[in-house]
Amino acid sequence: MTKKVPYFQDINAINQSELSDGAVFHELTIQTDDILSISMITIDPASAMPVNQLAGQSINTSIQSALNPAPPASTNGFLVDKNGEVDISVVGKVKVEGLTTYQARELIKSKAAVVYRDPNVQVRYANFRVTVLGEVARPSTYVVPNEKVSVLDALGLAGDLTIFGKRENVLLIRENDGKKEFVRLDLNSSQLFKSPFYYLKQNDVIYVEPNKGKAASLNQARTQTFAIIGTALSVLIVLFSRLK
């Protein structure tokens, strides 16, 4: 079993140039029900306070969620409504569905420029979350204040695989257009770096299956428990027989 524990076992057998053409990160596009953290810097800080106050709360929530795996009851930020719009104080409603965070930033900046002088706008996801389950140290749902998250990043947040995790057959569950997509990833192979699933999308689920060693250890623990109970019963029977 120990031979299957190290990651990327073939890394020394390949040329560095073979890994140069690795997985490409594609910027995510904003969808309805996403929650965005939008901050704005203006010449008069007080004028942008309604926007920035909500943005600060959403960033703090994301940081706390990364440090504490328990998902928050609610996430602060600007909700993308069913029309694909966010409603920003003073600026008004802005259609952001289908845009990247960079494109949304430029659009909001152009609209804010009508009200503010030379505004500086930042847009990021406030509810980018991934779930890691199975044989990891800290299985949970993690809210990440960053949209460029890899499989390794998610496993790192979960404290890495346990010794019983099946590294060569990690399951990734992704939803595309309302349909579930199931992909198997091999952490023992450097080909993971070339996989189009190396970078995660919002609401991805990673499941690490237990290996045969986990079942064997459970059976051994169960056998030891039964042995202890049997020994205790034998001692009690002997004691009661002597008392009589």
UniProtKB/TrEMBL annotation:
GO MF term set: polysaccharide transmembrane transporter activity
Record keywords, A-Z: Membrane, Signal, Transmembrane, Transmembrane helix
All copies of domain Soluble ligand binding, residue ranges: 129-179
Highest taxon of the lineage: Bacteria
Residues spanning the membrane: 225-243
Domain spans labelled Polysaccharide export protein N-terminal: 27-124
Name under which the protein is recorded: Polysaccharide export outer membrane protein
